[in-house]
């Protein structure tokens, strides 16, 4: 028997689940198809940072999009506790980027000044901290001698990324949506009334179709003759033994989990779908981390892994209709965790036929067209 939905989302990661949850809140009959999860899925390769600071100079709309999402997380976290029963472990922790040496401190300071100038009267919340101010902020950490200070932003935060994904999925289901797990899409055909999606578990009809399959969007969009410019962004991460709660605010690249382990990693590699571990990369990251926080050298490493993250070629999200399809959509985002709250709030109306909000209006496929 065919299943039928007003909206079918292909891809149940953080982005697809966020949009599915937002649609279910509006009473839309929504289904989310998700393939058998690989061990290298993007949700397992990040630290759950809600990170807005010190990025996207020259792209003010994206800066606003990120900060607007951050502001919505407190409300979303409380709502998800009620709708899903899952605590996503959201904390308004703020975030810190430590600087090694005077040159890096100056570069960070100049970048923040440029962001502040670009923001104009709206202002920009990021600030620089001297080493003394950094030590006062994190008094239980003895920083390395080359740490000269840091950037600080109170509007950054932290969640547990897998719990966020599961909470969005369960919340959607409890609000009337349908999760169709362990199901692979084989074919998609346009019909008079919408789309017919053939999977390895049967056929699904829908009026509106959303491709939110992360890196899989390249193959899915190919069924419509569309090229989606996203590439794998490999991250290698390692986890240490548990430590006391000495790091209430995450350092970019060094985060203490709720369970007490330290998660370390910041590399971005563009090596296709290769997920093999490379010792030299770990050594480079470990050297950097122990230069920041020397006591990390005394901790046992208990686990290492690598995963593939989604990276649109210019780093910014993609929200667009499938070319030539009024009711078919493509969604891709690298910062899916940071943007989850704004995806819940804003993208459902776009999927249901309204114009996307002005802040996100430029994130279309057309920006990649050859001039």
From TrEMBL:
Q: Which residues form the FAD dependent oxidoreductase domain?
A: 6-342
Q: Could you tell me which InterPro entries the record lists for this protein?
A: FAD-dep_OxRdtase, FAD/NAD-bd_sf
State the source organism's domain of life: Bacteria
Query: What GO CC terms are in its UniProt record?
Result: cytoplasm
Q: Which Pfam families does the UniProt record give?
A: DAO
Which residues lie in coiled coils?
A: none
Q: Any signal peptide, and if so, which residues?
A: none
Give the SUPFAM superfamilies listed for this entry: FAD-linked reductases, C-terminal domain, FAD/NAD(P)-binding domain
List, alphabetically, the PANTHER family matched: SARCOSINE DEHYDROGENASE-RELATED
Q: What is this protein called?
A: Glycine/D-amino acid oxidase
Q: Which organism is it from?
A: Halodesulfovibrio marinisediminis DSM 17456
């Amino acid at each position: 028997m065919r299943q039928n939905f007003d909206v079918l989302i292909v891809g149940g990661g953080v982005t697809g689940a966020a949009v599915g949850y937002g649609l279910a809140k509006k009473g839309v009959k929504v289904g989310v198809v998700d393939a058998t999860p690989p061990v290298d899925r993007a949700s397992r390769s990040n630290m759950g940072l809600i990170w807005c600071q010190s990025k996207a100079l020259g792209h003010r709309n994206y800066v606003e999009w990120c900060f607007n999402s951050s502001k919505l997380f407190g409300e979303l976290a409380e709502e998800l506790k009620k709708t899903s029963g899952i605590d996503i472990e959201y904390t308004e922790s703020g975030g810190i980027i430590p600087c090694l040496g005077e040159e890096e401190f100056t570069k960070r300071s100049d970048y923040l000044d440029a962001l502040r100038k670009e923001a104009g009267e709206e202002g920009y919340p990021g600030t620089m901290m001297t080493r003394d101010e950094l030590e006062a902020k994190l008094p239980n950490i003895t920083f390395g001698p080359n740490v000269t200070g840091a950037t600080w932003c109170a509007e950054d935060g932290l969640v547990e990324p897998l719990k966020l994904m599961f909470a969005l999925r369960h919340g959607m289901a409890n609000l009337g949506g349908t999760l169709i797990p362990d199901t692979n899409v084989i074919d998609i055909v346009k019909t008079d009334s919408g789309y017919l999606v053939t999977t390895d578990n049967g056929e699904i009809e829908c009026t509106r179709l959303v491709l939110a399959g992360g890196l899989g969007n390249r193959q899915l969009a190919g069924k419509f003759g569309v090229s989606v410019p996203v590439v794998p962004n490999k991250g290698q991460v390692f986890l240490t033994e548990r430590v006391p709660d000495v790091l209430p605010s995450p350092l970019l690249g060094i985060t203490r989990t709720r369970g007490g382990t330290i998660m370390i990693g910041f590399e971005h590699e563009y090596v296709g779908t290769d997920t093999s571990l490379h010792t030299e990369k770990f050594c480079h990251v470990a050297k950097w981390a122990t230069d920041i926080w020397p006591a990390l050298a005394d901790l046992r490493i208990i686990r290492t892994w690598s995963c593939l993250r989604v990276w649109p070629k210019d780093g910014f999200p993609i929200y667009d209709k499938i070319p030539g399809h009024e009711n078919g959509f493509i969604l891709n985002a690298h910062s899916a965790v940071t943007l989850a709250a704004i995806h819940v709030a804003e993208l459902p109306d776009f999927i249901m036929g309204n114009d996307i909000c002005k802040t996100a209006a430029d994130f279309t496929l057309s920006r990649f067209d050859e001039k």
